[in-house]
Specification:
By secondary structure, this protein is of the alpha/beta class. The protein binds S-adenosylmethionine. InterPro entries: Ribosomal_L11_MeTrfase_PrmA, SAM-dependent_MTases_sf.
Protein backbone atom coordinates (compact mmCIF):
# COMPACT_ATOMS: atom_id res chain seq x y z
CA UNK A 1 0.00 0.00 0.00
CA UNK A 2 1.38 3.44 -0.90
CA UNK A 3 1.91 6.30 1.51
CA UNK A 4 -0.83 8.96 1.37
CA UNK A 5 0.54 12.49 1.59
CA UNK A 6 -0.70 14.80 4.34
CA UNK A 7 -3.55 17.09 3.26
CA UNK A 8 -4.46 15.15 0.11
CA UNK A 9 -8.19 15.59 0.90
CA UNK A 10 -7.86 19.33 0.39
CA UNK A 11 -5.41 19.27 -2.53
CA UNK A 12 -8.25 20.08 -4.98
CA UNK A 13 -8.58 23.46 -3.28
CA UNK A 14 -5.37 24.54 -5.02
CA UNK A 15 -7.25 24.32 -8.30
CA UNK A 16 -10.31 26.28 -7.20
CA UNK A 17 -9.06 29.85 -7.55
CA UNK A 18 -10.97 33.12 -7.58
CA UNK A 19 -11.72 34.56 -11.03
CA UNK A 20 -12.59 38.10 -12.12
CA UNK A 21 -15.26 38.07 -14.82
CA UNK A 22 -17.05 41.24 -15.93
CA UNK A 23 -18.08 43.08 -12.79
CA UNK A 24 -17.92 39.91 -10.66
CA UNK A 25 -15.27 38.22 -8.58
CA UNK A 26 -16.19 34.56 -8.12
CA UNK A 27 -14.11 32.55 -5.73
CA UNK A 28 -13.94 30.11 -2.82
CA UNK A 29 -14.51 31.02 0.83
CA UNK A 30 -10.83 30.56 1.64
CA UNK A 31 -9.71 33.36 -0.74
CA UNK A 32 -10.15 37.12 -0.30
CA UNK A 33 -12.48 38.85 -2.72
CA UNK A 34 -11.35 41.80 -4.82
CA UNK A 35 -12.67 45.07 -3.32
CA UNK A 36 -13.61 46.61 -6.66
CA UNK A 37 -15.76 43.73 -7.92
CA UNK A 38 -19.06 42.22 -6.83
CA UNK A 39 -18.08 39.15 -4.79
CA UNK A 40 -19.81 35.80 -5.30
CA UNK A 41 -18.43 33.26 -2.83
CA UNK A 42 -18.81 29.70 -4.07
CA UNK A 43 -17.82 26.40 -2.54
CA UNK A 44 -18.97 23.97 -5.24
CA UNK A 45 -18.47 20.83 -3.12
CA UNK A 46 -19.31 17.96 -5.48
CA UNK A 47 -21.24 20.27 -7.87
CA UNK A 48 -20.15 21.87 -11.15
CA UNK A 49 -19.74 25.62 -11.08
CA UNK A 50 -16.69 27.31 -9.58
CA UNK A 51 -17.50 30.23 -11.87
CA UNK A 52 -14.30 29.88 -13.88
CA UNK A 53 -15.67 27.83 -16.77
CA UNK A 54 -16.08 29.89 -19.98
CA UNK A 55 -19.75 28.84 -20.32
CA UNK A 56 -20.57 30.12 -16.83
CA UNK A 57 -18.76 33.40 -17.54
CA UNK A 58 -20.55 33.84 -20.87
CA UNK A 59 -23.95 33.25 -19.25
CA UNK A 60 -23.15 35.91 -16.63
CA UNK A 61 -22.17 38.39 -19.33
CA UNK A 62 -25.46 37.86 -21.18
CA UNK A 63 -27.51 37.90 -17.96
CA UNK A 64 -26.09 41.30 -17.03
CA UNK A 65 -27.37 42.69 -20.34
CA UNK A 66 -31.03 41.61 -20.10
CA UNK A 67 -34.02 43.21 -18.44
CA UNK A 68 -34.39 42.13 -14.78
CA UNK A 69 -37.24 39.88 -13.67
CA UNK A 70 -37.93 36.49 -12.14
CA UNK A 71 -35.32 33.83 -12.90
CA UNK A 72 -35.24 30.09 -13.51
CA UNK A 73 -31.79 28.43 -13.39
CA UNK A 74 -31.93 25.13 -15.30
CA UNK A 75 -29.11 22.80 -14.13
CA UNK A 76 -27.92 25.12 -11.39
CA UNK A 77 -24.85 23.15 -10.24
CA UNK A 78 -23.28 25.18 -7.40
CA UNK A 79 -25.93 27.90 -7.88
CA UNK A 80 -23.34 30.37 -9.16
CA UNK A 81 -25.53 31.81 -11.93
CA UNK A 82 -28.67 32.38 -9.86
CA UNK A 83 -26.71 33.79 -6.92
CA UNK A 84 -24.93 36.25 -9.20
CA UNK A 85 -28.25 37.06 -10.90
CA UNK A 86 -29.96 37.91 -7.60
CA UNK A 87 -26.98 40.12 -6.70
CA UNK A 88 -27.57 42.18 -9.86
CA UNK A 89 -31.32 42.54 -9.44
CA UNK A 90 -33.08 39.40 -10.68
CA UNK A 91 -35.71 37.75 -8.54
CA UNK A 92 -37.45 35.86 -7.26
CA UNK A 93 -34.98 33.15 -8.31
CA UNK A 94 -35.68 29.45 -8.60
CA UNK A 95 -32.90 26.95 -9.36
CA UNK A 96 -32.96 23.23 -9.92
CA UNK A 97 -30.69 20.35 -10.79
CA UNK A 98 -31.15 16.59 -11.08
CA UNK A 99 -28.15 15.97 -8.81
CA UNK A 100 -28.84 16.22 -5.08
CA UNK A 101 -25.22 17.36 -4.43
CA UNK A 102 -25.87 20.38 -6.69
CA UNK A 103 -29.10 21.31 -4.92
CA UNK A 104 -27.33 21.07 -1.53
CA UNK A 105 -24.42 23.18 -2.78
CA UNK A 106 -26.77 25.80 -4.27
CA UNK A 107 -28.65 26.13 -0.97
CA UNK A 108 -25.42 26.45 1.03
CA UNK A 109 -23.92 28.92 -1.42
CA UNK A 110 -27.07 31.07 -1.45
CA UNK A 111 -26.89 31.28 2.37
CA UNK A 112 -23.16 32.04 2.20
CA UNK A 113 -23.93 34.99 -0.11
CA UNK A 114 -27.00 36.21 1.79
CA UNK A 115 -29.17 35.60 -1.25
CA UNK A 116 -32.75 34.29 -1.36
CA UNK A 117 -32.93 31.28 -3.69
CA UNK A 118 -35.44 28.48 -4.01
CA UNK A 119 -33.32 25.44 -4.98
CA UNK A 120 -34.98 22.12 -5.72
CA UNK A 121 -34.32 18.66 -7.10
CA UNK A 122 -35.78 18.27 -10.58
CA UNK A 123 -35.16 17.00 -14.07
CA UNK A 124 -35.38 19.54 -16.90
CA UNK A 125 -36.73 16.88 -19.24
CA UNK A 126 -39.35 15.32 -16.96
CA UNK A 127 -40.62 17.70 -14.29
CA UNK A 128 -43.08 20.56 -14.55
CA UNK A 129 -41.10 23.79 -14.77
CA UNK A 130 -42.23 27.08 -13.21
CA UNK A 131 -42.78 30.09 -15.48
CA UNK A 132 -40.22 32.91 -15.24
CA UNK A 133 -39.29 36.12 -17.05
CA UNK A 134 -35.76 34.87 -17.71
CA UNK A 135 -34.25 31.39 -17.76
CA UNK A 136 -30.62 30.38 -17.94
CA UNK A 137 -29.64 26.89 -19.06
CA UNK A 138 -25.94 26.04 -19.08
CA UNK A 139 -26.33 22.33 -19.76
CA UNK A 140 -25.58 20.50 -23.04
CA UNK A 141 -26.87 21.16 -26.56
CA UNK A 142 -29.32 18.20 -26.57
CA UNK A 143 -30.66 19.20 -23.13
CA UNK A 144 -30.98 22.85 -24.16
CA UNK A 145 -32.96 21.86 -27.25
CA UNK A 146 -35.17 19.46 -25.28
CA UNK A 147 -35.93 21.92 -22.47
CA UNK A 148 -36.70 24.97 -24.66
CA UNK A 149 -40.23 23.83 -25.67
CA UNK A 150 -40.97 22.89 -22.03
CA UNK A 151 -40.30 26.42 -20.71
CA UNK A 152 -42.68 29.33 -20.16
CA UNK A 153 -40.23 32.25 -20.30
CA UNK A 154 -39.76 35.51 -22.21
CA UNK A 155 -35.99 35.31 -22.51
CA UNK A 156 -33.53 32.46 -22.21
CA UNK A 157 -29.76 32.33 -22.07
CA UNK A 158 -28.30 29.01 -23.18
CA UNK A 159 -24.81 27.54 -23.10
CA UNK A 160 -22.86 24.34 -22.63
CA UNK A 161 -21.77 23.89 -26.26
CA UNK A 162 -19.05 24.93 -28.68
CA UNK A 163 -18.82 27.93 -31.03
CA UNK A 164 -19.53 25.58 -33.94
CA UNK A 165 -22.95 24.77 -32.46
CA UNK A 166 -26.20 26.66 -31.91
CA UNK A 167 -29.46 25.36 -30.48
CA UNK A 168 -32.47 24.94 -32.75
CA UNK A 169 -35.08 27.03 -30.92
CA UNK A 170 -38.56 27.03 -32.54
CA UNK A 171 -40.73 29.88 -31.24
CA UNK A 172 -37.74 31.96 -30.13
CA UNK A 173 -35.82 34.78 -31.87
CA UNK A 174 -32.02 34.68 -31.65
CA UNK A 175 -30.95 37.98 -30.07
CA UNK A 176 -27.26 37.60 -29.33
CA UNK A 177 -24.22 35.44 -28.87
CA UNK A 178 -20.98 35.55 -26.87
CA UNK A 179 -17.96 33.32 -27.38
CA UNK A 180 -14.96 32.52 -25.20
CA UNK A 181 -12.18 29.95 -25.53
CA UNK A 182 -14.12 27.89 -28.08
CA UNK A 183 -17.37 27.90 -26.05
CA UNK A 184 -20.56 29.78 -26.92
CA UNK A 185 -23.65 31.20 -25.18
CA UNK A 186 -26.82 32.54 -26.81
CA UNK A 187 -29.71 34.80 -25.91
CA UNK A 188 -33.15 33.89 -27.26
CA UNK A 189 -36.34 35.93 -26.90
CA UNK A 190 -39.82 34.43 -27.19
CA UNK A 191 -41.28 35.29 -30.61
CA UNK A 192 -44.54 37.16 -30.17
CA UNK A 193 -46.16 36.57 -33.58
C1 LIG B 1 -22.33 22.58 -16.93
S1 LIG B 1 -23.12 22.44 -15.35
C2 LIG B 1 -23.61 24.14 -15.10
C3 LIG B 1 -23.62 24.54 -13.65
C4 LIG B 1 -23.87 26.04 -13.42
N1 LIG B 1 -25.20 26.42 -13.87
C5 LIG B 1 -22.83 26.89 -14.12
O1 LIG B 1 -23.20 27.58 -15.08
O2 LIG B 1 -21.66 26.90 -13.71
C6 LIG B 1 -24.63 21.63 -15.83
C7 LIG B 1 -25.52 21.22 -14.67
O3 LIG B 1 -26.77 20.80 -15.20
C8 LIG B 1 -27.21 19.66 -14.51
N2 LIG B 1 -28.11 18.94 -15.44
C9 LIG B 1 -27.80 18.33 -16.60
N3 LIG B 1 -28.90 17.80 -17.17
C10 LIG B 1 -29.95 18.09 -16.35
C11 LIG B 1 -31.35 17.80 -16.39
N4 LIG B 1 -31.89 17.10 -17.39
N5 LIG B 1 -32.12 18.26 -15.39
C12 LIG B 1 -31.58 18.96 -14.36
N6 LIG B 1 -30.27 19.25 -14.25
C13 LIG B 1 -29.45 18.82 -15.24
C14 LIG B 1 -25.94 18.91 -14.11
O4 LIG B 1 -26.17 18.08 -12.98
C15 LIG B 1 -24.99 20.08 -13.82
O5 LIG B 1 -25.03 20.45 -12.46
Amino acid sequence: MGVVEDGWENRWREFHKGVATGRFWIGPPWESASDELLAIVIDPGQAFGTGSHPTTRLCLELLDGVERGSLLDVGCGSGVLSIAAVKIGFGPASAFDFAQASVDAAIENAERNGVELHAWLGDALLDELPAADVAVANVTLPTVEAVLPRLTVDRIITSGYLVTEQPVAPGYRHEGRRELEGWAADLFVKATH
